[in-house]
Design a protein that fits this description.
Blueprint lengths: L9 H24 L6 E3 L9 E3 L4 E6 L7 E10 L5 E8 L7 E7 L8 E8 L6 E8 L6 E10 L1
Antiparallel strand pairs: 1-9, 2-9, 3-8, 4-7, 4-9, 5-6, 5-8
């Protein structure tokens, strides 16, 4: 068997990273799907054809409001974009008594010119939080995309 030199073949390495990301996303969905997929809550902004546009030099939002949460859950997003290195992504949450979101940056211009991004963030101890927000900023011009999915997998 002829094994390619991964370090000297950048295009092949990028393809393998993309395939690995897709495989990890699908594996996580399948593993959780047997138990938890029936409790998946999609953002009303990203269900079906209601995907959220990500335009150059703008900030886009997707929300999950009034959802049931548990001690352990995953917040997942799938974003189509032709240059994920353009993106900064924050995950925000707030309780019913607060008008503002607390946020944590979950993506900071990594990935360079790679296309598309799938993220699943494990959240523990948020059972009293029912409002979530995904904030995506495209900091550069020339490439655009969509928040295709923003969902909560409750376990």
């Amino acid at each position: 068997m002829n094994t390619p030199n991964w370090e000297s073949t950048p295009a092949l390495t990028q393809e393998m990273v993309a395939i690995t990301r897709d495989l990890l996303r699908e594996t996580a969905m399948m593993a959780m799907g047997m138990i938890d997929y029936v409790t998946k809550y999609d953002s009303p902004n990203t269900i079906g054809q209601n995907r959220v546009a990500i335009s150059d030099y703008t900030t886009s939002y997707a929300y999950l409001d009034n959802i049931a949460c548990s001690e352990n859950m995953y917040l997942c997003t799938y974003i189509t974009h032709t240059y994920i290195g353009d993106l900064e992504i924050w995950l925000g949450w707030k309780d019913e008594s607060s008008p503002t979101y607390t946020e944590v940056k979950i993506w900071d211009h990594q990935g360079g010119g790679t296309d598309n991004l799938a993220l699943c963030i494990g959240a523990v101890g948020f059972q009293n939080i029912h409002d979530w927000r995904l904030r995506v900023t495209d900091s550069y011009g020339g490439d655009q995309g969509y928040i295709e999915e923003f969902c909560d997998l409750v376990g």
